[in-house]
């Protein structure tokens, strides 16, 4: 984690670039600490800016979290669309989507913030946004990727298993059963994708 002192001089970035950099820092902090463990101060330190500037840009931690959710969804859908549109794409639709999913899983700030959001279904603000995002992904799989409902269910279930193992850092488990599961799913998924790594 970055430990930049916000008081030190840093190169001035255009507002759009600073906002994007702050979103990236926030995604990492939310991925690591969850919504409740993250603070705007911790995010500001990660981004190398002041807490007041974070609040000025986004208004509140809640609004920042919603912006991170939106960015994660955009990155996933963009990665899926590129994988399907690639002229030299090999394998089935499931294979190509799986490879794109796993590539994004290498960045902790993409899938894990969404997992934290999905666990907050009862929150009056984050819950509806998380449900909307999940449905957006489901509709993409059914309508744009043209997967069958059973294929979409399997793809999502496999992706959630990958996310859960990443969030738990299961490869660090002392019990061989846990570390072996992580080995089978995570290492196998890096070469095969969520659906085909069985």
Task: Please provide a written account of the structure.
The protein is mainly alpha-helical. The chain has a domain of 132 residues: Tetracycline Repressor, domain 2, CATH 1.10.357. The chain has 9 helices and no strands. It starts with 14 loop residues before the first helix and ends with a helix.
Task: Compose a concise summary of this entry.
By secondary structure, this protein is mainly alpha-helical. It is 75% helix and 0% strand.
Continuous helix count: 9
How far the N terminus sits from the C terminus, by CA atoms, comes to 33 Å
Q: What is the chains' assembly state?
A: single chain
Largest sheet: none
The CATH topology annotation of one domain reads as Tetracycline Repressor, domain 2
